[in-house]
Design goal:
176 residues, alpha/beta, Rossmann fold, 5 strands, globular, binds shikimate-3-phosphate
């Protein structure tokens, strides 16, 4: 029986915000993979990228996902690039149902602009073009990983969380 609710999806699709609501409603801890990465490295995400590049970040992310996937009855919010290493999804899928959040590029741009500089991959002159390029490349990975997909573009955080819970109630092999 799977018991973790795992949120994946591109940056700015609402993984952390929805994860907080789900954790509260389901009385489960919220485990944020990026927070585990920061603890492991004892550095912020921009500093990890600056000092060791994306490769170093992905190595830490694999270790953090392994740790998160080993727990039970949690809500796990992943970083947007977690799908890029197949091993991460295999591990997360072993103990959880994978919820893929999506949003339109313009919405992602607006949501990510508020946290200026916190996302090194979008710290470029043309962030919208970058979002489109990364999204296009990653789309097959998200599609492959997803058990359930919810488009968050026009929905409130609570509505998204409610939809996820409705889908989980009918999900065979999941312990809500
Ligand atoms: C990344 C997404 C970020 C963070 C890192 C890389 C990505 O997390 O893990 O900056 O590759 O999409 P969020 O999706 O929570 O912004």
């Amino acid at each position: 029986m799977k018991s973790n609710v795992v949120l994946i999806g591109f940056m700015g699709t609402g993984k952390t915000a929805v994860g907080q609501v789900l954790a509260r409603w389901l009385h489960r801890p919220l485990i944020e993979v990026d927070v585990l990465v920061v603890k492991m490295a004892d550095k912020s995400i921009p500093d990890i990228f600056r000092d060791g590049g994306e490769i170093y970040f992905r190595e830490l992310e694999i270790a953090a996902v392994k740790q998160a996937a080993a727990g039970e009855k949690q809500v796990v919010a992943c970083g947007g690039g977690v799908v890029l290493n197949t091993i991460n999804i295999e591990r997360l899928r072993g103990t959880g149902v994978i919820i893929n959040l999506t949003a339109a590029p313009q919405v992602i741009l607006k949501r990510t602009a508020v946290a200026g500089g916190a996302r090194p991959l979008l710290n470029v002159a043309q962030p919208l073009a970058r979002i489109n390029e990364l999204k296009k490349f990653r789309q097959p990975f998200y599609d492959w990983a997803a058990d359930i997909t919810v488009n968050t573009s026009k929905l409130s955080i609570e509505t998204v969380a409610g939809k996820i819970i409705d889908r989980l109630k009918n999900y065979a092999g999941f312990n809500l």
